[in-house]
Design brief:
There is one protein chain. The chain is α/β, with parallel strands linked by helices. The protein is built from eight helices and five strands, in the order ααβααβαβαβααβ. The chain has one domain: Rossmann fold.
Length: 144
């Protein structure tokens, strides 16, 4: 992100959090320092706090991009990331192979190949944003 921000001559502010209270502080820091948007990293801890994250960005009118669809379904603006259902399906296939006798060490490492992009138009409207038709056309799902 730093490379992309530099190329676009944008200021990138990195805020970190590893506890629920630190999330509040991180978002407050972002607001105080004039941050105009938020990208939430794909991190297990954040996945356990979707309600808190969506509530904070909504309260402060911050457009935010997340890594999974659940955030967008709860009111986040956008998400782009691994199709979680596909990842679970792959885990099931691996589990089945192990239960049938394959050794885990012999199974190939797999990387996600299916990703999904969601946009919440209701949230965009509440933020005063107009999402270009070209971007809407690329979305896997648009939540009205």
């Amino acid at each position: 992100m730093q490379t992309a921000a530099a190329a676009l001559r944008l200021k990138l502010l990195v805020v970190r959090a590893s506890t629920a209270s630190e999330i509040d502080v991180a978002v407050a820091t972002l607001v105080r320092q004039g941050g105009e948007a938020l990208v939430v990293a794909a991190e297990g801890f954040f996945a356990s706090r979707p309600d808190q994250l969506v509530a904070l960005v909504s309260r402060h009118s911050i457009p935010a991009v997340f890594d999974t669809r659940g955030y967008v379904e709860q009111g986040g603006l956008m998400s782009y990331g691994t199709d979680v259902l596909d990842a679970f399906r792959q885990a099931g296939i691996y589990s089945g192979r192990i239960l049938k006798g394959d050794k885990p060490a012999d199974l190939p490492v797999q990387q996600s190949t299916k990703f999904e992009f969601l946009i919440n138009l209701k949230t965009a409207k509440s933020l005063g944003l107009t999402i270009p038709e070209t971007l809407l056309a690329t979305a896997d799902e648009v939540i009205q």
